[in-house]
Amino acid sequence: MSSGRTQYESDSDTVLSALGNKYSAEILCAAGTPKSAQALSEDIEIPIATCYRRIEELVDAGLLTCEGRELSEKGRRTNIYRRTVDELEVDFSEAEPEFSRKRRTEAKNQLQDQLEE
Predict the structure, then answer these.
(1) Does a structural domain hold residue 20?
(2) What CATH number is attached to the domain comprising 71?
């Protein structure tokens, strides 16, 4: 049964909810280059369980993406995450919030990766 909400309203709620949580902005800032949840947890100095919860919320909101998997130092397969946006603007002047996103391009991701090497 539908709640009567549009996809846009649901997306707005999901994005605002994800951004409103503690550490979400820090995770997005740290995820400019591909990083595992463990690396993000260590960089930001937050508990790994909290980091995983925030990552899931940010992925659901479309602000973070899983770029693939790699082997950890302990030989386990781990997901690698990177933010999908560089800027996000929220306009509250209407009845529903409106978002303007500056998405990261693949070219920018590749350049960032080269600079990190």
Answers:
(1) yes
(2) 1.10.10.10
Which pLDDT score, from 0 to 100, does residue 104 have? 64
* Total domain count, the chain: 1
Full domain range(s) for residue 51: 7-116
In the DSSP assignment, the letter for residue 62 is T
Q: Is residue 2 part of a domain?
A: no
Answer whether residue 1 is part of any domain: no
Which range has the worst mean pLDDT, 26-30, 61-65, 88-92, 97-101?
A: 97-101
Q: Work out the angle at residue 84's Cα, subtended by the Cα atoms of residues 30 and 7, and round it to the nearest 5 degrees.
A: 130
Q: Is the pTM above the cut of 0.70? A: yes
**Contacting residues for 89 by C-beta, under 8 A, at least 6 apart:** 99, 100, 101
Q: Tell me: pLDDT of 8 over 60.
A: no
Arithmetic mean of pLDDT, 73-100: 86
Q: Alpha helix locations (H) across 1-117?
A: 7-20, 24-30, 37-44, 48-60, 106-116
